[in-house]
Amino acid sequence: MHRSRFSTLLIDVPQDQVPAATTFWSSAFGVPATPVPGEEQFTGLRGAFPGLVTALQSIDDAPRYHLDFETDDLDAETARLIALGAVEVGRWLDCRTLRAPGGHLLCVIPVHSDPEEFQRLATVWE
Question: What is the pTM of this model?
Fold first, then answer.
C-alpha cells in the first residue's frame, strides 16, 4: 500500500525566456513570483491554484508543462504509473521522470507538502 497525489504544476521555460515568462505568468495569475531558496531553476507562483504548487522551471529544452505526483513510496508509485503505460525516461535526485502515453512528462517525487495536507488529499493505492 502507498499513497500519492497530483501536487505540482510546472511551467517549463527555456532559460533565456524566464524573465519574460515570469512577468507574464505572475501577472496572468495575479500572484507574486518568488525564487525558491536553494533551487535556483524554480520560481514559485504561490497561490495560483490553492492546494497545488505552481512554479516556473528554467530548462534547456522546448517550453512545455509537466505534472508532479508526490508519494510516500517512489518505487511503488513509479511502478503503478508504468503499469498504466508510462515509460521512465530519467532520474534527477529523488525524482523519477516519466513520459505518459501521448508524450507528456510527469515526475514522481517524495512528499514535499505538509504531512497533514498529504494525508488528507492523497489517494491510497493497494
Answer: 0.91
For the chain, where are the alpha helices, taking DSSP H only?
Answer: 18-29, 74-83, 115-121
Q: For the chain, which domains are there?
A: 2-125 (3.10.180.10)
CA torsion through residues 101, 102, 103, 104, sign: negative
| pLDDT tens profile 81-96 | 999 999 999 998 999 9
Q: Distance between CA atoms of 41 and 19, rounded to whole angstroms?
A: 12
Round to whole Å and give the CA distance between 8 and 21.
18
> Quick one: average pLDDT of 36-65?
95
The single-letter DSSP state of residue 32 is -
Please report, rounded to a whole number, the percentage of residues in the chain having pLDDT higher than 70. 100
Measured between alpha carbons, how far is residue 82 from residues 30, 104, 122 in Å? Answer: 36, 13, 19
